[in-house]
Amino acid sequence: MIVNMVVMDSITFAQNLDVIKAGVVKITTTTGQIGTGFIVRVEQDVVYIITAAHVIAGDSQPKVEFFPKRNVSIKGAVLPGAEVNDDLRGLALVVVREKANIPPGVMALAFGTSADLVSGGEDALVIGHSGGGGNWALAKRLISNRQRRDISLDPGVASRFSGGPIIVDDKVVGIVMSNRDGFGLGITHKSVLNYMEGFGVVPSTFTIVEKSKASSIPEPSAPTVSLAPSSSESSKPSIPQTKIGKDGGPMVLVPASEFMMGRNADPLVGEDDAQDEYPLHSVDLDAYFIDQYEVVVERYQRFMRQTNRTNPEFWEQVDRNRDAQKPVMGIDWNDTKAYCEWAGKRLPTEAEWEKAARGPDKRTYPWGEFSPNSSTANFGKNWNADVVYSEKLKPVGSYERGKSFYGIYDMAGNVWEWVADWYDDRYYQDSPKKNPQGPSNGTVKVMRGGSWNNISTDLKSAARAWSHPTKLYVYLGVRCAQDVR
């Protein structure tokens, strides 16, 4: 059974403020700073809380006070990777562990969907701590506008509201980020969800029922989406659309189907210098899972600690707080294979990588047909190998418009990604149609996706490149795949 959840049928804020407040916490640091957070996931013996990074800056174990048990502070723990260097948009995840520390009646607030992104003009509610006595204060505000991920509230709020939810129509649409009294700043819920996914934290979603029914609420399970089965497969169990890997990284299902791989010569220009992409051909793949994000510094660091592996090349550039959610680079093919195996996964084949990038509709780029720009991918940056982590790489999931048909991020730009296959420039001309594995041997391995330093044409989903498996580059990382079991 899950910790007792407070839930109600079809409620309004005016009638059920206590229900909403049960998802909001007060956060106090050892430096005396007070702010707000809200619950995003509840498990039997752990609660996950999102807040603004500046709320917990300087304190890795802030005190948390739950609404159902006011005036009692519980020690929380800030997960590594808090964006403490960004006062305006930095986020942090705080966890409270052990069932005894989690009072009955806590709940996770429901997030809006992509369709619930605000545009300006919406009436909203914010919950925070205006001061004194641990009050859960409710404030009505107007969302005056949204620019990309930034939300403006009118009028502003007290700084103690920072980290609290911005709610429209019973759904969280953003988080307050104001770090000074009277400012009305926030960022969208999509930014929060992207940050959480970097930790492998999937938000809880609960139907609202009455407290008297709380004891009968089953533990929530991950949502599943059935693949469209043929009549002969209708008795087979459905496959989850998403899952969390052993390393904590979220994975996305790519269902079994044929897709078009490679490309033909452009009839207007004839053959070009990328003939290894010829010809366009049909490939039939079984279903598989693939990482939604590139492997990040934080997870690779955990792998190194547990396996006593040496640091990658360029590791001296890494700032653990600043770079935790940036893709790891400077790893060779053997390192990436070892990481994926440690995580209970494997390297994707070249065909699996390309299908995940371009989808079933033969997209030129992961997002579609238009050329890359600053809203779709991290690319086209000037070369400077000494400041790659600090200035060139972006946290994974930074480009919402750049995700693929299957919802996979950064398959163009940021870092090239190793795949399993040996490279052969003529392999496509006689490769098997069903689950191709690449040549049986070779001297160099395939890498895919382009990087921070590449031009736009290198980001095409069909583009191929190669490198010797022992080479270490500032533009080369990895994501893993996994068979459907």
What descriptive keywords fit this protein?
six-stranded antiparallel β-barrel; Thrombin, subunit H; seven-stranded antiparallel β-sheet; 23 strands; paralog of FGE (formylglycine-generating enzyme); 485 residues; alpha+beta
Describe this structure in words.
This protein is an alpha+beta fold. It folds into two domains: 1-212, Thrombin, subunit H (Beta Barrel), CATH 2.40.10; 238-483, paralog of FGE (formylglycine-generating enzyme), CATH 3.90.1580.10. The chain has eight helices and 23 strands. A hairpin with a 3-residue loop joins strand 2 and strand 3 (46-52). The model is unreliable at 1-15 and 206-236 (pLDDT under 50).
Quick gist of this model?
This protein is of the alpha+beta class and 485 residues long. The chain is 12% helix and 24% strand.
